[in-house]
Design brief:
There is one protein chain. The protein is an alpha/beta fold. Among the domains are: 14-82, no CATH class; 129-361, Aspartate Aminotransferase, domain 2, CATH 3.40.640. Helices cover 36% and strands 10% of the residues. It contains 18 helices and 12 strands. It has helices spanning 14-21, 49-53, 69-82, 103-109, 112-115, 127-144, 156-173, 190-197, 215-221, 244-253, 286-289, 346-359, 364-381, 402-405, 411-420, 448-467, 469-473, 486-493, and strands spanning 148-150, 180-184, 201-205, 226-232, 257-262, 281-284, 304-306, 318-322, 325-329, 397-400, 427-428, 437-440. The strands form 3 sheets. Strands 1-7-6-5-4-2-3 form a 7-stranded mixed sheet, with helices on both faces. Helix 4 packs across helix 12 (346-359), helix 6 (127-144) crosses helix 12 and helix 13 runs parallel beside helix 16. The longest helix is centred in the C-terminal third of the chain and has 20 residues, at 448-467. The structure holds pyridoxal-5'-phosphate. Pyridoxal-5'-phosphate is lined by residues 95, 155-157, 188, 190, 232, 236, 261, 263-264, 285, 300, 302.
Length: 510
Amino acid sequence: MSDHGNLTNPAPDAARLDRRRGASSIFDASRPGRRGVLLPPLDVPGADPEALFGALHRTEVEGEVEASEVDAVRHFTRLSQKNLSIDANLYPLGSCTMKHNPRINEEIARLAGFADVHPYTPGHLSQGALELMARLEAALIALTGFARVTLQPSAGANGELAGCLMIRAAHVKAGAPRKYVLVPDSAHGTNPASAHFAGYQVKELASTPRGTLDPAELEKMMTDEVAAVMITVPNTLGVFEENILEVTRIVHAKGGYVYLDGANFNAFVGKIRPADMGVDVMHMNLHKTFSTPHGGGGPGAGPVGVGAALVPFLPVPTIEPEGTGFRLDFDRPDSIGRMRTFYGNFGVLVRALTYILSYGQEIGEVAENAVLNANYLRKKLAPFYHLKYDAPSYHEVVFDDTLQAAKGVHNIDVAKRLMDYGFHPPTMSFPLIVHGALMIEPTESEPIEELDAFADAMIAIAREAEESPELVTSAPHVTPVGRVDEALLAREASKPGNFAPVLRAPVRRS
Ligand SMILES: *Cc1c(COP(=O)(O)O)cnc(C)c1O
């Protein structure tokens, strides 16, 4: 036994604890007169800012933060350490594919020729960038089997909209846009939103008790008023649509298009090509399957692959070979136009091609390990958490809180308690057909030790829910911010102009 003397009671007082946590906002850290850089007085005649900038020149900025470099560096470093992040721990956010982002991607994306190329640089001076995009398109064509791929959409949802607009344009060209888009009840919320945005009415397809599409139900609803069916493979329960060939046959027989939400291509990349299954159009989330840091909402890229029938409607510009190089083609009369400014989120495209090339022919390993990891967690946790749809998983597995709810512990409590164990919460309240969902996607980048540590935490929480439920329902206890009043937060956030209600919502600091 060692004697630590006074150190046996290391609990700091509140003031010291606050210091450890740092100021809650950089505005609190502001001190009049502090500067990041102090320059000596000018010893040459200076330019007159009034003359240069006129009315734009301001001598005072109300509320401007005054801080030194060390204040700023420490403030933001402390903030970063309050986060649960993929660089620190397994991040099981289902349907988000929070995988490790290989650092080689970052190095390549920062090469000056890629990072500094200006979007207005003419084609003959940006051949390297155009070649990179052409190579990425070719790689995605090889992986999906489609005729062409547009790299322009800046997220999955933007890709869905591009796909729906192309489908609409094709139907219009053939006579009429048609009226409906069918979307399964398990779909990601962006699917019905995108179809609606493209001018369609959405009809819901009910899932089978196994959580998959019901061909008989589809047969009934598929009329010549239906423009397209949007399916997700694997679906949002992490289950593979086993009747996919039947689905594409039924839709095509009525002249409709099959849209595949391939945000989670992770589960079968390098194994099957969606075009071979009869799919007409599909978006991929480069920021999920092909790795780009995307916590906090971006940036992303949602390329869309299309079969030959939809090629004329692709967004402009496309990238075409010309001589020994490439050119941007804006001369496409049937194009739906642009989906965004310039050519998409180019930095994400660089990362994706780097990722694909680092795997090369072995890219199917991504899917194998993603599926193995999800099934490993399903088996380990199934005795402790209820599975509404107990089928072998693909890349993710959806538990729910049925067993814990008997003790008054709900999915949100489990999620909050997980933060005490150092893990980001899983996806909750989605898919909508699973009440109290806990949707877990470990991805392929987790080693078995990390999967075991996560499973141990989940099992410990299941025990706590049995033995001391209030410990779980009052979590988190060791995070910088305690349980937030979410009802108040939602109310405040919906008020116009209220950008940061989280700063004002009452929180209990642990
Ligand atoms: C993430 C996701 C989307 C939306 O992608 P964003 O890039 O967030 O717009 C759509 N569908 C599914 C199944 C997803 O997982």
